[in-house]
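Justification of computing resources. Each target in the renewal requires a structure prediction run like the one illustrated here; the chain below, 314 residues long, is used simply to show the kind of job we budget for.
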Amino acid sequence: MVIQADDIRSAAERIRPLARRTPVLSSAAFDVEYGKHVYFKCENLQNGGAFKIRGAANLILSLPNAALAHGVVAYSSGNHAQATAIAARHLGAQATIVMPEDAPRSKMEATRSYGARIVTYNRFTDSREQIAGRIQRESGATLVPPFDHPMIMAGQGTAALELLEETGPLGALITPVGGGGLLSGCAVIAKAIQPAIRIFGAEPEGANDTFLSLLAGERVAVRPDTIADGLRSPKPGELTFPIIKSLAERIALVSDDEIRAAVKFLLLRLKILVEPSGAAGAAAVLFRKLPDDVRSVGVVLSGGNVDWEELARY
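Resulting structure tokens:
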């Protein structure tokens, strides 16, 4: 595996200046209704509104000054964009972010407010990787990938490290899965702390590339179609997939309607705002997608950035 538990522990120290130690919430009524002890790791309350600051900060804070002088470049629909912009601004480096034209307006405006330069593209006709590569070659900037990089994966894993430090042993851990950076990082540290813990991912039915990839035993690409814009990666990462294949028991698929219901539930019952991508794991628990014999579970609520017009429709 490209990362080990010590990489995640080192990341936890490195990112302290930027990443908050987010709260863990529970609900007695929820536990009674669904027959499980559920602990919600609230990354929706993280700096930048999502877990992504953990990975972006881990990579950017490790760069030498000579590299920072040329800036950083990233591609993202929003949360990784904001995280990269925040970490770059902290060090006085220029961030250029390649974002789809149809990215949520709130995420695009927030990214720009952190001082980033935004380059838009058509997600159906253009390659964000090619655009970022061109910018990287022309400027000498350092690429900050959204998930498929050891430093990014190690940073994301710090969410599970904090969760287990607070809750103690759990029966299972579930995180949303897009490209796999969060799930792979969390799986590595969770298994190191508690080898018997069961690892699950939550993925939209309309963006089920990791689910299909595990069935096939190799990475499979799809054309994502889901309201969960942060989980629209068309294919698992080259580095993240082997870890998920090795450590995750399975991927729970949730529909967009189930995700909407989870967003509504979290807002009205736990009084926290979680975006559709961040609510995928909660939806899997709400709609009983985990095995019945799982009695306690940690759920990573990965982000809370959602346009208010969309929220009103949910």
